Amino acid sequence: MLKTINCGELRPEHDGQKVSLAGWVNRWRDQGGVIFIDLRDRTGICQVVAEMENAPEAHALASQARSEYVLQACGRVRIRPEGTANAELVTGDVEVLASSIKLLNPSKTPPFYINREDSIDENVRMKHRYLDLRRPAMQANLMLRHRAVKFIRDWLDERGFVEIETPILFKTTPEGARDFLVPSRMQPGRFYALPQSPQQLKQMLMVAGYERYFQIARCFRDEDLRGQRQPEFTQLDLEMSFVEREDVMALNEKLMTELAQAVAPQRRLLQTPFPRINYQVAMERYGSDKPDLRYDLCAVDVSDIAGGCAFQVFVDNVAAGKPVKVMRVPGMAAGMSGTRLRAVARGLEDLARTVGGKGLAYMALDSDPQGEVKGPIGKFFTIEQRVALFDCVGAQPGDLLLFMSDRREIVRYITDVLRRHLAAELNLADPDVLAFCWVVDFPQFLWDEEGQRWDPSQHLFTMPMPEDVHLLDSDPGSARGSQYDMICNGYEVAGGSIRIHDRGLQEKIFPLIGQDMEEAREQFGHVLEAFEYGVPPHGGIAWGIDRVMALLAGEPNIREVIAFPKSQTGMDVMSQTPSAVAGDQLAELHIRLDLPEDDGAD
Ligand code: ASP
Prior knowledge:
Layout: E1 18-31, E2 34-41, E3 44-51, H1 56-62, E4 70-79, E5 94-105, H2 122-127, H3 129-132, H4 136-158, E6 162-163, E7 181-183, E8 191-193, H5 199-207, E9 212-220, E10 232-241, H6 245-263, E11 268-269, E12 276-278, H7 279-286, E13 299-301, H8 303-306, H9 312-319, E14 324-329, H10 338-354, E15 361-365, E16 373-374, H11 383-393, E17 400-405, H12 408-425, E18 433-434, E19 436-440, E20 445-448, E21 453-456, H13 471-474, E22 483-488, E23 491-498, H14 503-512, H15 517-530, E24 538-544, H16 545-553, H17 583-588
Parallel strand pairs: 3-5, 6-9, 11-18, 12-19
Antiparallel strand pairs: 1-2, 1-4, 2-3, 4-5, 7-8, 9-10, 10-24, 13-14, 14-17, 15-16, 15-17, 19-22, 20-21, 22-23, 23-24
Helix pairs in contact: 4-6, 7-12, 10-12, 14-15
């Protein structure tokens, strides 16, 4: 070994020991006869001192060292002279007085500082990801990820789960995204699909009697990279036999809680047990099935009161079955001048318009309880109506009340967009808090207007709630699925369901979602066939490991917890992937390209 101890491990107890260190030059200072080098490795930084008088050769070598050079330094550990300790470094009480220094490799000047937490253009970071990953913050993230995955594996192992790998070259999986296809050379014209998830295979493992399966599984979905999705991502995929919804939820809640406490104790869990929210309630209150519960902004239905006021828009809307809802923003109007209030309200109204709203009315309560109610619609409400309204939403002096009225669906969009915007604006979402909840009782299907068919709200293997199975024939839109989603800080961190384990019921789903039986047999014949051989009742879940890690690491973006992520356009910028392939490779696969004009694939 070129090192006897790691840089970050040196402590006063090593005083007097001879050590050998190896790492990168984080910083260096040449003070004439003495050169100080901060040597960095994965574990931290320590100071190496090269004195011309004591070790002229080591000093000569140190004088050539520059940022990111790789060095080996041998010497004795000593307590730093009085007054020179560095409290910012855990190794700051000691230094290594070099007797020899060896240059293991020089380095070009890096395109950005590795030793500073500057904000760096993401494209540059991705192009030189190997340098970006040298930064201590990135190293901490990847090590946290390692510890978390190890924790999960050990935890599940202790509870009788078996990790089983499933193929990457497989068949289309119905998770609702586009497949990545891989052409088969041996069977010209045929394709594998990369798994969108191991869904079918984990169910096959239940048929095969494994009872408790998990896998840290790579999944692939060819989607436009809206937001922070990645075309390949990692799931904790899990399936259990002989269980009910409660069992899967309880196990996963315990695992998530213990994981967070073990690897990210500095993040506070807002509430345990995790609250459970009915899907419809979540949509009505928060306008989203992934509500961020770190803040309580929500929409309260005041149609009963507003329908009787003198504001014609509200009266007509309520008569037409469109709700009037109020979002109370605590204290937001306190001390605001009329002009400022109008400007703020206009900004929020513009925001509502971006999601299809026609307007946004408001009332502002004076900080003085005896004061006036400001806002153009106040006058349309009688004193009694106002009292009832304030009571209904729990209004306090200084609050801003935002009124939304439109088609139910639009009001939901507005609720969601306002919540997110106001939380950011008013700093309501504490980054150190993890607000978990479960959303349950999803509809089994959602109506797809364009395709004129029902789409599974999770996937086609989800079991309807037992008491709603009969609705599949009469009223599929009202059937609830046995799906459960675990949400944290506005993200879906895990989702799963109890599965259909009856062939007849599974077959019933295909026509409902507009799938021709012939086509279904072609795609899922193996599942249907397996379902004839004694399938245990089973259910499972999959966690988005990248998102869980970003939350535990306190990173807003999943790219910060993935070693080699793709860019927004699905590229690996470092290796310039995807790339063109040689003509003979295509010929072997019997593929001829038919590219649109101007396509840059050269
Ligand atoms: N296969 C599902 C998904 O990837 C999760 C599950 O139902 O277990 O979202």
